[in-house]
Design brief:
Elements lengths: L7 E8 L5 H14 L4 H22 L7 E8 L3 E8 L14 H6 L7 H8 L2 E5 L8 E8 L2
Antiparallel strand pairs: 1-2, 2-3, 3-5, 4-5
Helix pairs in contact: 1-2, 2-4
Amino acid sequence: MNNIINKISDKITIKADLTELDRVRSFIQNASLSLGFDAITSNLIALAVEEACTNLFKHSYNFDKSKEVSITLSADSKGLEILIEDDGPSFDPTALLPIDAEKIHKNLKKGGLGLFLISKVMDKIYYFPKDNTNIRNRLILFKNFV
C-alpha cells in the first residue's frame, strides 16, 4: 500500500434507489483497487458499503428515490475511510453489535445479516447521529491497510 503519499479524497452522491448500487460498487471497487487492496478485499468492501446503503434505502428512507445519500472516501497511510451520510431518522447500527449470526440462522430470519457482514469486513465502524454539530447522520467504515 505504499502508493499513498498524501491523503486523498473522493465523493459521490446517490439517490435512495437500488439501481444506484452498481454505481456505488464501481466507485468503491475502483478506489480500493487503486489504493492497493486486492480484488477480493475490494469486492468485500464494496459489498459492505452496498449493505449499508441498502439498509438506509429500506429502513431510513422507505425507498423514497427523492432522498440522497453521500459517500465520501478518504485514504491515508493507515487505511481507507468511507463516510456515508444521510438525512433520515437517526439509527445507530453499532448499538446492535456484536450480531449473533448463528442465532439469526437458527431462527430462519430472512435478512438481518447486513450489519454482521459489515462488521466482519470492516475494521472499525462509527456512527454519529445528526444533532447540533452534525447536520446529517454519519456512518464511518474504516478498513486498515494490512
